[in-house]
Amino acid sequence: MLSITSLTSADGQLCPVRRVLSGVVGKWQSLILLSLEDEPQRFSAIKRLIGDITQRVLTENLRDLERDGYVTRTVSDGSPVEVHYALTALGREFLDLFKPLIGWAVQRRADIEENRAAYDRKRAD
Amino acid sequence: MLSITSLTSADGQLCPVRRVLSGVVGKWQSLILLSLEDEPQRFSAIKRLIGDITQRVLTENLRDLERDGYVTRTVSDGSPVEVHYALTALGREFLDLFKPLIGWAVQRRADIEENRAAYDRKRAD
DNA sequence: CAGTATCCTTTACGATACTG
DNA sequence: CAGTATCGTAAAGGATACTG
Q1: What is the pTM of this model?
Q2: Comparing A124 with B20, which gets the higher pLDDT?
Q3: Could A25 and B23 be called an inter-chain contact, meaning their C-beta atoms sit closer than 8 Å?
Q4: How far apart are CA B76 and CA B71, in angstroms?
């Protein structure tokens, strides 16, 4: 049963399942995982692929993703160092479920924008 | 092609596709849509089903969901008024793609919590 | 009942400078 | 190169009181 009761919590904390989801569907996390889909990438490559993310925020998000087990972090000794990030099986599992959602957003984007515009036109009267 | 390039933007704005996703995978939106899955609900029923959401935030989120076309809002004349919210086809489409993600989070939750704990143990040395 | 209105706090994020 | 450290801002959300 995937009812809403499995996601609600009385106290001020997110229930564990919501905490899992919020750790991965946020503004940056899914984008970072997507940047690793084809092959492992170095820190600077991820940053370049995403474009509009600051170093600080990327570091922060990568740490959280590593902590939860979505990516691995590998440091090669040398100077300057190279740090490679790669998807784990868990990260790939998530991506496989999330990508259909991206496809849907691409398909439906125009409809949603039209809905929004229509709603705003009505309210403007 | 569902590459990352379809989601990145050079300027400070979210690209349109990311804007769509951010409007629906946030902290409350998916939960609200889930509360409407079986049948339309009144405002107070949604609030009760979710539990930890304030009236202000629920109102705000419902408006945005209505604006984008995920839910309809129907006011019955009477006193006091009854307001019913219901899923649209668009809202249902989203839920159909999002629910597998919830199922996955339920399955994987324990693993992820263990990853987190293991990571924190390492860092504690 | 279904909201508004106000105020306040927290969290995420951006910008920038610095470092092994 | 891959971060850390600091500072500042803006948006989301919580608490509470009020209303047609």
Answers
A1: 0.91
A2: B20
A3: no
A4: 16
